[in-house]
Every structure is written in C-alpha cells, then in structure tokens.
Amino acid sequence: MLRERGITVKEALELDVFKSSRVVAGEKGLDRVITSVNVMEVPDIIDWVKPGEFLVTAFYSLRDNIQAQRELIPHLDDKGLAAIGIKPRRYLESIDAEMLAMADRLNFPIIEISYEVSFSDVIGSILSEIVNRQAMILEKQDVIHENLMQLVLNGGGLKDIVTRLYEMTGKPVLLRDMVYSRTFSAGLDEEELKLTAGYIKGLEENNIIDRGMRQYEYGTIKIGKREFKRLTVPVRAGDQFFGFLYVLEKDRGISPLDIRAAEISSTVAAFEFTRESAVSGVIKRYKNEFLDDLLSSDEVLRRMALERAESFGFDVNRVYRAYIVHLQETDAMNKTYNNYSYIQDIFGRIMAIISRELSVRKLSFFIGTRGGNVAVLMEERENPAETVDAVYRAVKAALPCVDLVITAGRVYSGINELWRSYMDATVVLSIARVFKDKKVIFYEDLGIYRLLASNDRDELNRFYNETIKPIKDYDSKHDTELIKTLQAFFEANGNLKKMSDILYTHYNTVLYRLQRIKEISGRDLEDPVDRMNMSIALKIMELLENDF
Q1: What confidence tens digit (pLDDT) does each residue in 456-473 have?
Q2: pLDDT higher than 80, residue 101
Q3: Are 401 and 328 in contact (CB under 8 A)?
Q4: CB atoms < 10 A from the CB of 304, how many?
Q5: Could you tell me the sign of the dihedral formed by the alpha carbons of 414, 415, 420, 423, in that order?
Q6: Which of 9, 87, 304, 494 meets the CB 3.0–4.6 Å disulfide criterion with 113?
C-alpha cells in the first residue's frame, strides 16, 4: 500500500542531497518505502513516529545512552519505519557496532548523512520527490483514464481495454469475465495463456481469490515452472461483481502507475460490462418474450412468434426438441449475500456454456429463460443424448457447485408443435426426482411414468389408497418392511431366492411377508392383473412421495 504513496530508500539515495552519504547497515532493506520524513530530537520519539517515515537525527537526545541507541532500531522496525539517517561527529563520534549489527539482521537501512548536509535539505529533497512523483502519477492517471474512456466511447470492448492496458504497462494482462465465462488476454502466447488461465481458474474455484474483494491485492502465479507476482483487481460496480483483472509482473516489477492503470482499467471495464448488461438485458427480454410466445399453447401467439423468428436468427425450417435446464436448490445458493443476483449470475454462465458447446457442434439452437429455468430449443440430429450429456459435463466442469438436471421433450413434426415438446420436458421435470441420480432425462425414458404423470392426480391418489396405502400404513404401525419386500418382488421378478438375497432375509420370512401383503391388500401377486396393478401402484407411490 505504501509503494504508491512514496519512494524507496534506494530511490531516495539517488537524490543529489545524498551524494556524499553512505549506507552503513541494513543494505538489504533498501526497497523499503519512504512516505514522509521525521526528525528525532527527543528521547520518546518512538511515540511520535509513523509507518513509512524516514527518520533523521544527530542523536543529541541519546548521545550518552548506548543502551537506548541499541534498542532504537528494533523499535523503529516494529513501527514500520523505512530507514534512519544519522548525522554523526557533532554529538556522536561514531555509530555503535551492535546497533549496526542489529540493523543488518533486521534489514533496516541506516544512512550516514554527511556532516555538511542540513536536515532541512534532506527533508525538502525527499518530500519534493514524493510530491513530484505523486503529481506525475496523477497527471498520467488522468491521461490513462481519458485514453480508456475514449476507447470505449468509440466502440472498443473488453478485449480492447485489456490490449490497451498491456500497451500502457508493458506487462501481460488477463481479464476473467465471471458472468459469461469469457477470458480476454494480451501479452501472453497461446501456451502461456493456457497455463495462466488454468492456474487462475484453480485459484478462483478454491476461493484463494475472493469474489468479495473490494480493492486490489498482490499474489503469485505460475506459468510453467516459473513463478511471478500478480496484481489482482476486482471488476465491479457497487455490489455488482463482473470478474477479475490480472496484471502479471513477469520481467519487470509492478509500479504504482501500473496499479493506477489497472484500477482505472477495471473501472472502465465495469462500465463496459454495465453497458453490455443493459444491452443484453433488452435483448434478453425480447428473446424471452419470443420464447414465451413460441412455446405458448395459444395458436395466435405462436403465429406472431413465428413472424419474428427470422429477426432472432431462428431457422423455422429445421426440426427441434425442447429442453429444460433446471437449477436445483443447494445450501450454497441459500447462503449467498444476494441470492437473486447469484442465481442470475449462474443462469448467465450456464447459458453461455451451453451456447458455446452447441455452437462448437454447429447446431441451430435458441436459448432463454422461462418459468425460473433455462429453456433450450436444439436442432434434432443424431445422438441428441450424447450432445446433452456433453453439455451437462461442460456446465459441471465450469460450475462444480451447481446441482442441475436437464429434461427433454419429444420431437414433433412441425415448428408449430414445438410447444408440445416443451410441455413434455415440463412433465419430465415434474417427476425427475423419481429417477434419483439421473441428471439428463428424455421423455422417452419415462416408460409407464408417461401415463401416470399425465393422469388425474385425484384418481392416482384413489388408486394408491386402494392398493399400496394399507400396506404402507401397516409398516408404519408395526415397524415391518412389507413395502420393501414388495419392491424386491418386482426387482427379482418374483424369484424368492433372489428376494432373500436382496433383503438379507430368510426364505421363510419372505414367504410370510408375501402372505401378509396378500391378506392386507386383497391382491394376489400370482394373478397377472393384480401383479400389474401392484407394480403400477408402487410407481404411483414414488410420484406422490416426490410431490410431482
């Protein structure tokens, strides 16, 4: 933090006032930063010093106290001072050897100031240099700000901002867009970019780089076998977070002006993100209105949507299938500071990943949000399941903390029937929990559930009450496992030996339980009709238990 507000001890020693001075101890600490100057003429100076000060003294107050002289350096180091300039000969014949040794151990510079140099010259020279440096930085800062704003106002985008920052600093720059999962870079070749982006992604995913960051911070980064310092600047507008801007040290150190340039670039990038977001918001609203109309059961609205299809680049001459990408609730979502903003951010990133994956495969598609989910209309080609599995894996790889399920409707002959495909996908989503760990579910996968899910819920309840419920109530009352036995019956296709193995239960116990099921339900599993009804009743139970 001090670096931007001052000059190093080494830089100060290059001033004319120090031409005849010399470093007598603590030479390894010459990179300490001087932000102001203080004069020591009282014994209790420690109570008055501040971090970053260059302390000058003739040792008048401590001239006869060797012990106090030896204790001074550790105290100054603890206080965060930059260095001490001592002017010997008038009150101090020579600097104590133990004091010099302590300064070497702490890398705390001691400068022996020439007898003929006045304290006022030292103070004036250092403060003038600091003020001049700050004025120069402020002047260049204004130029940088104007330069970048003109760039954006003239149509430049995020890639142009990154390139301009690289040109101004001469250091590699990387911008990570956390909204749409984009990466912009300058000053890195293809291999370096791959290594750098991968390393940074790991830091972000492990929260080593915190999204809640409000100001820049330093860290390190590995490119191949080499490790460099990195400057990380958050790109945000108020509470709205967009991503991170990285400046890599590589061959030359990061200067205060580099920091200012990065901070200004991050502000301008946030402005561009906001502009993009505003434009994207309008486009998104129109796209979602088009999607709502196209998937409506109202034929008039569908017809109006088809009239606008070309303006959205939607090819009505192709065959599509409707998909729903449902974001399932997780603890991470509920613990976020701004839940709505977090979910919208996740939706944006999911849509960007899906768009990228489908574009790579050169598929015609349309994507938007509908009913709190992401809706995708994807051109039907061979092996759609393989494509959707790849999309799911890509989303999970980029967003491992997100729990989602993708459901698919059936394919219909005409574009005007696409709404039916979407309704199918909705039906699949309503009973997706029945499929437990399956995360990509097609309507064709439903089997008998296709009929059950589309049936009257009251009628399903009645059928359930007449078949399975008496058995379930008996289990609850007597702490038995008749339902589990019935499920094992169908799993083992009625084979009693297999049932015993599945249930880890004796053969005779299985026979007894089947007899109790028959007595309670009044259904005989030997009878084909009763057996079919009980099998269907179990599936109805699963639907009702999962609140479809």
Answers
A1: 677 677 777 878 889 999
A2: yes
A3: no
A4: 14
A5: positive
A6: 87
DSSP 441-498: EEGGG-TTHHHHHTS-HHHHHHHHHHHTHHHHHHHHHHT--HHHHHHHHHHTTT-HHH
The span from the CA of 274 to the CA of 100, in Å, is: 56
Residue 388 CB burial class (10 angstroms; 0-12, 13-18, ≥19): buried
Alpha-carbon distance values, 536 to 49, 81, 490 (Å):
84, 81, 11
Residue 373's Cα: distance from chain center in Å? Answer: 20
Length of the chain: 548
* Burial letters 308-325, b for 16+ CB under 10 A, else e: ebeeeebeeeeebbbbbb
Structure tokens at 46: 């420690």
Question: Which tokens hold the place of 43?
Answer: 């014994």
| Angle, vertex CA 316, rays to CA 315 and CA 320, nearest 5 | 90
405-425: b (≥16 Cβ within 10 Å) or e: bbbbbbbbeebeebbbbbbbb
The whole-chain average pLDDT of the chain stands at: 85
336 in Cβ contact with 330 (< 8 Å) = no
With tokens 């979502």, the residue in question is: 333
Which amino acid, residue 94?
Answer: S
Q: Which amino acid is at 272?
A: E
pLDDT band at 339 (very low <50, low <70, confident <90, very high): low
* Phi, psi of 315, rounded to the nearest 5 degrees: -85, 105
The alpha-helical segments, DSSP class H, found in 7-116 are 9-12, 66-78, 97-106
Q: Are 248 and 233 in contact (CB under 8 A)?
A: no
DSSP, residue by residue, 281-310: HHHHHHHHHHHHHHT-S-HHHHHHHHHHGG
Q: SS3 of 374, please? A: strand
Q: Which two tokens stand for residue 305?
A: 């949507």
459's CB contacts (< 8 A; 6+ apart) are: none
Start-to-end Cα distance in the chain: 57
pTM flag (> 0.90): no
Q: Is a pLDDT exceeding 80 seen at residue 479? A: yes
C-alpha distances (whole Å) from 11 to each of 30, 126, 369 are: 9, 10, 58
- For residue 59, give both structure tokens: 């040792």
CB 392 within 8 A of CB 406: yes
Q: Which range has the worst mean pLDDT, 67-81, 210-224, 304-318?
A: 210-224
- Mean pLDDT along residues 517-533: 85
- The C-alpha atoms of residue 370 and residue 290 are separated, in whole angstroms, by 11
Q: How are strands ordered across the β-sheet holding 240-248?
A: 182-186, 173-177, 240-248, 226-237, 217-223
Q: Which residue has the tokens 């409000």?
A: 214
Nearest to 208 by CA among 192, 198, 219: 219
* pLDDT tens track for 407-456: 999 999 888 899 999 999 998 898 888 787 889 999 888 777 766 766 66
| pLDDT tens per residue across span 49-81 | 889 999 998 877 777 788 888 888 999 999 999
